[in-house]
């Protein structure tokens, strides 16, 4: 079979979300009409994150399904939003991360948790998830930093697999919370994968402001878990520091980063994929490396192609 490279690779994986919107078109249309005035408004590069979420979930879920070792599977979306997104400056809508996960993977997971602290968003999300009439879908109307302990009581058990999607707007996910999900497997035999959005472009700007005497320093210290950010002078250094902090906390962890950058739209962020080391050196991570190469090699084109997704719901 010929290996797909470049934009053909990206088109293939975008098509999987196109298939989702086509296969579940009737369901999506009904869900859109539940509290239609409530939606998250995001920048044009949001669809690419959803492509990567679906890709990582597909990869991990396929592998875990084959292993009889895991008795329970949990999905945790810690910044779930309303379930429907609108692209800023347009009238174009697309499904959010909760619906990507529920429509494609709810059959595989024993429980799916969705944290959202904004009252309007959480109300709309709860109503939209109720449409599916599945007791396995658990909306939690709280700040994820405050409800993590509640989730851990369920997830932190023997022979469990957990996939965390952590997609903060900026630095709302403190280091204390990251430590909790990194250390979930300390006392039990647990599979744990994390997809984390690191808003590197904004973070480096805030570091610059803090060094000039701004009030951002306290937030940066809470986010990094130390004042080590004071030695950071570039985006690459900020990414390296956060990766170092993860490996200091959990040395038996593998960390992959994917840089999403657009000169045209003027933004940069990184996605961290965090998983446990395995005895056979995680051969399946080649698929994540593939995503990294293809996305980073086609930065602006990747964003533009992913933007085509918004027309599926208009």
Radius of gyration: 19 Å
Q: Would you count the extended β strands for me?
A: 10
The total domain count is: 1
Helix content bin: 40-55%
Query: Widest sheet: strand order?
Result: 6-5-2-7-8-10-9
The average pLDDT value, as a whole number, equals 86
- Residue stretches low in confidence (pLDDT < 50, at least 5 long) are 1-6, 310-314
Number of helices: 12
What is the CATH architecture term?
A: 3-Layer(aba) Sandwich
CATH superfamily: Vaccinia Virus protein VP39
State the end-to-end CA separation.
35 Å
Structural class determined from secondary elements: alpha/beta
Pattern of helices and strands: HHEHEEEHEHEHEHEHHHEEHH
Strand fraction band?
15-25%
Largest sheet: 7 strands, mixed
From the spread of the alpha carbons, the general shape counts as: globular
What CATH first level would be assigned? Alpha Beta
CATH topology: Rossmann fold
List the helices and strands and how they pair.
Elements: H1 6-23, H2 25-32, E1 40-42, H3 46-65, E2 72-77, E3 84-87, E4 93-95, H4 97-105, E5 111-115, H5 119-130, E6 137-140, H6 144-155, E7 160-166, H7 175-182, E8 190-198, H8 200-211, H9 217-224, H10 235-249, E9 253-262, E10 267-276, H11 286-297, H12 299-307
Parallel strand pairs: 1-3, 2-5, 2-7, 5-6, 7-8
Antiparallel strand pairs: 3-4, 8-10, 9-10
Helix pairs in contact: 1-3, 1-11, 1-12, 3-4, 3-12, 6-7, 8-10
């Amino acid at each position: 079979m010929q290996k797909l490279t470049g934009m053909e690779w990206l088109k293939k994986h975008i098509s999987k979300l196109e298939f989702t919107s086509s296969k579940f078109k009737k369901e999506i249309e009904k869900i859109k009409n539940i509290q239609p005035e409530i939606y998250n408004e995001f920048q044009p590069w949001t669809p690419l994150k959803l492509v990567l979420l679906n890709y990582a979930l597909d990869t991990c879920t396929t592998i875990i399904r084959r292993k009889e070792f895991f008795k329970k599977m949990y999905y945790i979306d810690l910044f779930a939003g309303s379930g429907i997104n609108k692209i800023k400056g347009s009238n174009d809508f697309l499904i959010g991360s909760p619906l990507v996960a529920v429509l494609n993977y709810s059959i595989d997971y024993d429980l799916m948790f969705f944290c959202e602290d904004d009252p309007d968003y959480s109300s709309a999300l709860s109503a939209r998830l109720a449409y599916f009439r599945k007791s396995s879908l658990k909306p939690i109307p709280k700040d994820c930093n405050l409800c993590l302990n509640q989730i851990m009581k369920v997830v932190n058990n023997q022979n469990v697999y957990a996939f965390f999607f952590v997609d903060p707007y900026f630095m709302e996910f403190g280091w204390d919370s990251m430590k909790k999900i990194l250390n979930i497997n300390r006392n039990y035999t647990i599979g744990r994968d994390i997809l984390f959005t690191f808003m590197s472009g904004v973070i480096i700007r805030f570091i610059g402001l803090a060094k000039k005497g701004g009030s951002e320093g306290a937030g940066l210290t809470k986010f990094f878990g130390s004042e080590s950010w004071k030695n950071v002078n570039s985006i690459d250094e900020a990414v390296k520091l956060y990766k170092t902090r993860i490996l200091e906390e959990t040395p038996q962890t593998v960390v992959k980063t994917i840089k999403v950058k657009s000169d045209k739209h003027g933004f940069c962020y990184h996605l961290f994929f965090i998983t446990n080391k395995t005895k056979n050196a995680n051969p399946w991570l080649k698929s994540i490396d593939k995503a990294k190469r293809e996305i980073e090699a086609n930065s602006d084109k990747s964003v533009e192609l992913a933007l085509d997704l918004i027309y599926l719901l208009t």
